[in-house]
Specification:
By secondary structure, the protein is α+β, with helices and mostly antiparallel strands. Helix content is 30%, strand content 9%.
Length: 139
């Protein structure tokens, strides 16, 4: 059974091409990190070819994406429509009675929110976002 390459199938060894390290590598007294250029001085063509065969280096213009590591921050969560409506609620002037419903359970008017948004919402969606806004405000 052969080892499967982690290198792109489009990469072909070219002794004159610019290369970068894929793994930390010590050359003389210096430790090179992934993504750093492979030095041309002080490194024989034979050693570079061996590094290529062992997938220690790769072509610079085919640089692979860094791998995920343990403890890395998770990607940010996508912004939802509700987040956008909650943000729009925060922009409304609480003293402007034309933007809010009348009565004990005062809520932002749907029309006032639709004017701030790039999309339209209905009363049920406004109520969901209003509940989220109140939770975030601690009330």
């Amino acid at each position: 059974m052969t080892k499967q390459s982690r290198r792109s199938w489009r990469q072909r060894y070219d002794p004159d091409a610019e290369m970068v390290f894929r793994r930390p590598t010590r050359v003389g007294d210096r430790l090179y990190q992934p993504g750093e250029d492979v030095p041309t001085k002080g490194v024989s063509a034979r050693l570079r070819h061996r590094w290529w065969d062992n997938e220690r280096i790769e072509l610079k213009h085919f640089q692979s994406r860094p791998r995920k590591t343990l403890g890395a921050a998770p990607p940010p969560e996508p912004v939802t429509w509700r987040d956008e409506v909650v943000e729009a609620i925060g922009k409304l002037d609480p003293k402007d009675s034309g933007l809010w419903t009348a009565g004990k359970k005062r809520k932002p008017k749907v029309g006032a929110l639709n004017a701030l948004l790039d999309f339209e919402i209905d009363a049920s969606e406004r109520d969901e976002a209003w509940a989220t806004y109140q939770e975030r405000q601690g009330g």
